[in-house]
UniProtKB/TrEMBL annotation:
SUPFAM superfamilies registered for this protein in UniProt: Metalloproteases ('zincins'), catalytic domain (SSF55486)
Encoding gene (name): LOC127367846
Amino-acid positions noted as binding Zn(2+) in the UniProt annotation, renumbered to this chain: H169, H173, H179
Peptidase M12A domain ranges (all copies): 69-269
EC number of the protein: 3.4.24.-
SMART domains reported in the protein's UniProt record: ZnMc
Entry keyword Ubl conjugation: no
UniProt lineage: Eukaryota, Metazoa, Chordata, Craniata, Vertebrata
Subcellular location: Zymogen granule
A single GO BP: proteolysis
Protein name: Metalloendopeptidase
Length: 273
């Protein structure tokens, strides 16, 4: 075997080794993301997943496009609602990207299905409808606020965003809901530790002129930030009052008050209490 052939074989073997190592590393990174998301609250997961996004994300995961329509939508309390059909249901067409595997697709569908037994919101596969949700594995976990146009992307990145609480959190943004900690009466229920908020993220705590739909402030809402959101040192940025030890945020599913709000906002009279 001549020298040139020997060198070529060595380079080929080295390339194969590096490729194999790279694949192992990707798998390890994915496992780390999945493992971490199972122990942290969903706010921490969402903010971690969106950490390097190049988009402007209001409150960490509300995508704001540079369009007049979206800004007009944003300036209202609960705006750009999805229309109700003649059958009394709010039927929201959707497509799920083929890039998800069967397990991920099943989890997304299960999170959507959970709305149907409790509200008049029904997510239906898109046929030819002009306005629809496109569930895609783009970078991070994010959504537009309310119905804003035709194709409307809900980003649910693989290996981090595919869990029921996060899926339902982003779907609630798409339905028109802000985060709980930005509602108009929040100062009666939480204290923001401004000294611990990174100055570049202060805008994420701006109060909104919200219609609170005659519902109480809900520490257990799927839309409530966790205690350390946007903190400098992983210490508390959101402190419940008057009881600072009260649990806030959760990562499982819609709270009872979340359900009440959906029904009141969309006038799901059959379910309204």
């Amino acid at each position: 075997m001549d020298l040139r052939t020997t060198v070529s074989l060595l380079l080929l073997l080295l390339g194969l080794c590096n490729a194999h190592h790279g694949n192992d590393q990707d798998g390890a990174n994915n496992e780390m993301l999945e493992d971490k998301s199972n122990v942290e609250d969903i706010t921490a997961t969402i903010l971690r997943m969106n950490n390097r996004s190049s988009d402007f994300l209001l409150e960490g995961d509300v995508f704001i496009p540079k369009t007049r329509t979206a800004m007009k939508c944003l300036n209202k309390a609960y705006s750009c609602l999805w229309p109700k059909s003649a059958n009394g249901k709010v039927e929201i067409p959707f497509l799920i990207s083929q890039k998800y595997d069967d397990t991920e697709r099943s989890m997304i569908l299960h999170a959507m299905k959970d709305f149907e037994s409790k509200t008049c919101i029904h997510f239906i596969p898109r046929a030819t409808q002009r306005g629809y949700l496109s569930i895609e594995p783009r970078f991070g976990c994010s959504s537009l606020l309310g119905r804003t146009g035709d194709k409307q992307v809900v980003s649910l990145q693989r290996f981090g965003c595919i869990q029921q609480g996060i899926i339902q959190h982003e779907l609630l943004h798409a339905l028109g809901f802000y985060h709980e900690h930005t509602r108009s009466d929040r100062d009666q229920h939480i204290r923001i530790n401004w000294e611990n908020v990174n100055e570049y993220f202060i805008y994420n705590f701006k109060k909104m002129d919200t219609d609170n739909l005659n519902t109480p402030y809900d520490y257990s809402s799927i839309m409530h930030y966790g205690r350390t959101a946007f903190g400098k040192f992983r210490s508390e940025t959101i402190i419940p009052i008057p009881d600072p030890s009260a649990p806030i945020g959760q990562r499982d599913s819609l709270s009872d008050i979340d359900i009440v709000r959906i029904n009141r906002l969309y006038k799901c009279w059959r379910y309204v209490g």
